[in-house]
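Q: Can someone sanity-check these two? First one:
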Amino acid sequence: MYCQIVRGIKHGYTSYSLQFCLNTRHKSQELNLWQTDLMVIGKMEADCVAAYFGGKNILITGATGFLGKVLVEKILRVQPGVTKLFLLVRATDDKSARKRVQTEVTGREIFQVLREKHGMGFEDFIEEKVCPLAGDVMYKDFGLDTAKLEELSKDVDIIVNGAATTNFYERYDVAFDTNVLGAKQICAFANKCTKLKMLLHVSTAYVCGEQEGLVLEKPFMMGDTLREGTHLDIESELNLIKHAQMELKANCATDKAERKTMKELGLKRARHFGWPNTYVFTKAMGEMLLGHLRGDLPVVIIRPSIITSILKDPLPGWMEGVRTIDSVFLGYAKQALKFFLVDPDTIMDVIPGDMVVNSMMVAMLAHSEEQAQTIYHVTSSMSNPASYMTLRESAHRYFVDNPPRGENGEPIRMNKMRFFSTVARLRAYMVIKYKLPLEILHLFNIVLCGVFSRRYNELSGKYRLAMHLIDLYAPYTLFKGRFDDMNLEKLRKAKEQNSDGGEYNFDFDPKTIDWDKYFYMVHFPGVLKYLA
């Protein structure tokens, strides 16, 4: 065995058996006993984590996403002795899959440290270690042919399922295919793997919906919902989708009408059962199926909160894909967004992408070959909470020191963003600032026989979109919960911290982060460099 794993992880107290109040959590007798148990047993050192991946064959889905790229790069950099990384990507054939991986994964800036390390041999190293597969998690056996599937099932030691559609307002059928049926197909394949040691599934902390107070690291059971008096039947939801598709086809619906109908259906079903949007609703169903179908498989479910740019390793500030807080920052940088729906005193739960990947790799080692399911909140709101006020003050100070310039080359004066702490207040502001002028324009348009029709329709559409986004993002910008991370804290205690900042750094402790310094010196420069 590479390292001695602490009994506190495999046989210790689970987070949901420790009913701590927020203000007394670290004073409890149970926590003292738990810490004592951890000190008795050995530690996992960073080199043990890297060593675990040596000689392994790993299947990774979602490798073209932000987190997937960080994971692939990290494994290849710290453990060149990994046997093979099979990357399942959507493509017409393996040649197209290879080209897509070269373009969207290994060709990205995050691989520059690895590229420099191998020099002229980088492409050969990637060719040897990375095997792109053309397929899709939504299909049975991922759409692979029988021979390839059999070979893969004999070779794979670890599966990491990061494939997901993360659009809050996604079509119900599209989100269901990837986030629900994808989890089902992953589980079906995992049960065929003869030497599987670990199945790690990436979910989201916000599967809890709009829960307030302490959100526990506990699993979903089949049929669970977030609204009292309702019962969720996943098979019925699939039949509902199929029925809606048949009706749309029978009515010869346009592509636009079909998209709108399926998006509205997803949102309607999510809210019926207590979830705020289609994304978190389907991710919760995916967790349910995984827990129900896993059998004796060793399963780890990682639930990150809002993932932000890389903190340290390998490229501070690097990121891809605009998150909610980044779209706000970019809008503020251009002075196109001067207000936002958020309570400035609300906790903003964010976690750097490299910390998420570090926790994933340590968790895989900790629970390898363990016939159980373990859930981790990879979050910061309990260990090191940051408020939206910190974000606003850091952003304002950053632009005072680094002012953006207008077309004339002169510095743009940056005003502090205005925050609205309730939906009602923001709606009232929107009515006065935008809706009333729109109505006046509408009256002029009628009097002048439609002269302003195009302009009115354009502005009216933007107003409706803004109001829709307010409803869609309110559950997150006004989120009142805090994510219990006791399971993750046990994992941290079981691993010896490596603080040298080298390539074998597996730190995932948010308590080490100075949020103001991170936003000012790492995240904001990264957003402007990689996303603007």
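And here is the second, same format, sequence then tokens:
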Amino acid sequence: MLNFFKGSKDKDEKTIAKLYVSDGFSVHDLKIPLVTFFETTSKTELAVKKITNGFTVDTDVTTDEKKGIIATTRLQCIQNSTIIYVIAEQVEIDLSSYKETKKAADFDLKKQAFFIHLQTFLLKLQDDHLYALKNEEVISYVQVLDLETQNFIFHQLQLKEYVLSILGISEVTLQDAEKELPKHTSWHFVLTSKRTFLLGKIPDYNMLLLDISSESFTLEDKTGKDLITTDSLSFYTEFMNDTLYHEILPVLENTGNRLGIFGDILVKKYNKKEAHLQLASRLFQLQSTTTDLLLNELKADLIPLLKRLKVDAEKPEKLLEVFTKHANAHETFGENLIMIVNDWKLSYYEQKKVLAILQPLQKKTTAKHTIAFHEHFYQLFIEKEKKAEIVFEFNLNYAKHLNNSERFTAAISLYRTIYESLPDDSIVDLLPTNTTNLLEGEGGQQLKITILEAMLNIQKELNEDVSETIHKLAVLQPLLHARIDALALHEKHQQKAKTIQEILSAKDLVTHKTEVTNDYQRLEKKEVLKEVVPSCFQNAKGFFDSLNNFIAALNPPDYEAVISFSDRLNAHNHPEIIERITAICFALQINVPECYIGRGTYSTSVIGVEGKPSFLMIGIDFLDPKSLRHLEVNALTFLVAIELAHIYFEHSKITSTDVWRGAANKGFTVVNMLLTVLPFVGNIGAIFGNIANIEKYGKIINRVEQVANVAEKGQGIMEVTEKFNLNPFSKDKSQANDSQNLLITSRLMEIVADKVALLFADDLKAAVKGLLAGMTTFEQDHPIISQYGVEAFLARTNETGEFVHQELIIRLKSMCAFYLSDTFETLKKQLYTS
């Protein structure tokens, strides 16, 4: 055989070819594919014979009886290390002597179907499941090569080495001028996961490999072809592939993460087809055996779901499955996700979608693993978004996530920022439905409550002083036992908390005669109004003017008719209350009205009327010690001060009770809860626009927190806004009169006057006693209070689940909140300090 090879140059070189195989491959493994091929393509029998270092196959066997010879085509497959030589011969066998006559076959071996079949067979065995797929998808980083060159490249690969790029080059020159490369060699640049080398194919079909893996690269832009220089050689790119070298430069410069880096390059360049995404995924899977295991595993799972690097909004559940799988398993999930969006250059809006999908993973079990990405996106968000409610919702989500990930200091700082940015929702205290359970904390300012509760929990984790937060929560929910019980644990507020506890549990509100002081300081109306009126009304231009216009149209009780059957209240018959009335009028800077003792219809009422003259009527039952309604001077002071406050603020000519009586006389419907819809003149858009804002923010709270009590406790405001069409910007025009809006007159007047009256009584128990005794149904309700207590009395509902005394609860809640507030103490100092 050696002689044959030495003499092969004299033969037709087209009948000799090489197959390149890997270490451990045996030439005999070619028998089956070769025989199988011929069995399907040839009609004659095959003869297979084992020879030294290989085997032969005789095919196309024919017998010529006349000449006495057998003619056949013989293929020899002989292995020399990792090269298998295939030799094609034409053989004639003399039947008489069995002497063989051989000559070179008369065909080009490399073009034969069986040889191409063998090359393809070997490529499949050597296939790294990466390069072949890339060839199928025709990516620009891989030039189309003949099978022989492909076969040679693959037999050069080491264990777990994968082909990434094969590009054409020209004019290869060695830096050592004394060395020359064979002329007329065609060259290719080959990049694998482990090495970089140049592959040269010499005209005599030999291959030349120059390994430049450890060398540095310099790319020099030229017109047309670019020049690439390494430590040992230089070469030029081809005209159309110069940019590709610039793109793969990061891979060339890296030795440990080439598959992953190349995968990122493919992701950015080819992300429109699923096949390309699967290819990138395969690259990341193969790379995941390195130190970047977790990152590349995540990339491998993620990229097939990001066609065109966009989140499919209709199929977020598949992304969530991937995120859940990795977030549950790895603490570095968030950091890896940041690297991915940066590597793949995902847009701001796609990252925003990713964050939204991640929201279920903000729970405590995975919060620490996902917070890094939220923190990363926060920096982008604050630069992009300016709309208040969008910022509010994002911050709320982020603060909750920080809290769950035990980043308590950052969380509470953000919660404080959120709290300061909350819309004014004080108006919702006036708007509970009759089924809203204020005693259990429903209704009211749930926006603030939600934030404060979160802050309180964090403060406990940080062992911070919680007294201020507990105080704020008690002011917002002063009838909720949990709030008042917590407040009672703090010395500064202990006495007031105890007072509220005693009031709610009392069956008989015993109030004692207290020392009365008439030494009040004058109060400036504008300053007092600012402190006692809900802030949502303070900036409502025209509200009180409109209110005055409405009330002015009502008919007050006839002065002459009232005094005709009433006795004067004076210093002789009731000196204590007259002294108190005089002192209060001095403080309020109003004239002392004429005072009368009401009888008959007015025996159970305290009524103040602003007019010419203004007068005050106190029902005889409050003054008679034998009456169930009798009040000691401090409790009676509270009821009197309410009426004087109405006059003081000039927002009524009669008390709210008679406002609605007068409204009824004018043909308006009086709603049981004293809340009705009336034509309203004047600009109060600021109020109702604010309600719409609160409704919007309330829905955000529900969406972000996903806490049942928020949705349930805040639903009253939603019901009321829908019922009365509070949003003036609503597209719903179903109401007959577009000018109709909600008139909260009764409640507003009462709670403002209640607060001022409490300042003068300075006794919450006395004030509550006055409120109860002033009810028109006090005689029949008193036994219920005596038997079951104040709270049980207030908690009574009718057959439809409505609270029977909801108006009283609203007033009591407002008064207790004011009593606990810092504003109460500030105004008291102004009133009592000389």
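A (reply): Looked at the second one. The first helix runs from residue 2 to 6. The chain is about 50% helix and 15% strand.
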